[in-house]
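[job 0412] stage=fold_complex status=start
inputs:
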Amino acid sequence: MTASVKMTARNLDFYYGDFKALQDISLDVVENQVTALIGPSGCGKSTFLRCLNRMNDLIPTSRVVGDVLLDNRNIYDPSEDVVSIRRRVGMVFQKPNPFPKTIFENVAYGLRINGSRDKGFIAETVERSLKQAALWDEVKDRLDATALGLSGGQQQRLCIARALAVQPEVVLMDEPASALDPIATQKIEELIHLLKKSYTIVIVTHNMQQAARVSDVTAFFYMGKLVEVDSTETLFTRPQNQQTEDYITGRFG
Amino acid sequence: MESHFHRELDKLKMTLIQMAALSERAMVTACQAFFARDVDLAEEVIQNDREINLLEVEIDKQSLKLLALDQPMARDLRFIVAGLRIAVDLERVADQAVNISQRVRFLGSRPPLPRDPVMEQLSEASLDMLKLAISAFVNQDANQAMDVCTMDDKVDELNVMVLKNLIDYMMNEVPAVERSVQTIIVARCMERTADHATNIAESVTFIVRGLNIKHHSST
Ligand SMILES: Nc1ncnc2c1ncn2[C@@H]1O[C@H](COP(=O)(O)OP(=O)(O)OP(=O)(O)O)[C@@H](O)[C@H]1O
Ligand SMILES: [Mg+2]
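[job 0412] stage=fold_complex status=done
writing structure:
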């Protein structure tokens, strides 16, 4: 299996008004790999992640310069359809954010939005997605119960199932385990290992050990710049850049 | 900002330096005892070995704790992993010193063999390598470490020369066979010490540069 590039940021700048939050980022995201983004708070990880599915479009006065390619097509090209890009590049947020609906409806939500009416197909997809998110066994007997009754870890896996239901190609995760206990965190990490067989994953995490455990490639951001990117093993055992070294060995600032 | 982890890491480095100092002293003293045929000095080396063994155990303990509790990264991780290897090499150096000292016990009770200046060169060269390797570790100096590695061939050559000289000597002096064999073992211990110095230097290179230069591997 040869690694192929799924997404590419090319000379990407990003502005919030006058503030340049990202400077000249060039980064390849390889298909069926987990790419981790690390760096101190405020360095632009979430901003970069949101650039990958145009989530930043929602922020007024924001501006993108440069390209983000998905299968070699620039997602910022005016001819591209934002809704379809967000379907292909899904997102899971830091805090689990289930809708105040049933477990079933939470997962079916994206399908209904996309105009799906076929009940059999929807039921099948909900089951498959919950299984992929390693939640099925825990909820299969109470699909009609409210999602808000689930534990935090279960809610987060529900949100992952919701993201997977529309069959995205890329899944973006912004600190998906930061609100979870060690056992729930371990489940999410196991899940990430399983998911990369079928999806391409980009994950932001403040937990370096987590980045080391789950990712194939790690990128270190600092003050809006991509300082270093390398295979996770290399980056954590022999980084090339002194800033990376200082950050990952806890000697920063 | 000095974290608890980095203070503990400094402590580990101090323990390693302490062990290195003791191993170096053991080897220097053993060589002195050999040339001076000083059995008391040799006994001292044998006595002191226990302390070095205890330090090795202590280094294992400290390292394991840091690996388990702090999940170190990058250079810190390389330091701990290489430190464990360095402790093994230092312990073996001390064992070579003990081995030499045990030969001195025997040789000291027999008439001396004729002086072989090559033996002195061998001892000097391997002690130089050991000292330089330890200095490379203390200063985390990859250039010094590289110098150590280039010195090893010379020591091997000297060891072969000592061996040849002693074999020639034994041929003609049958009563001196046992003393000659014991002296060959001493030379072998000096040569092994140089090998451990090379290992230590390779470990230092790994810490500083992140490169594994063992067996000419490149990563
Ligand atoms: N909506 C916004 N409007 C203006 N500035 C913003 C906005 N969102 C983020 N920023 C700024 O952009 C920079 C990057 O923020 P971002 O949220 O991408 O950082 P981060 O690396 O994800 O940090 P953290 O680890 O704390 O989540 C910060 O200086 C932040 O204050
Ligand atoms: Mg963020």
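[job 0412] summary: Residues A 45-46, 174, 204 surround magnesium ion (ligand 2) (CB under 6 Å).
[job 0412] exit 0
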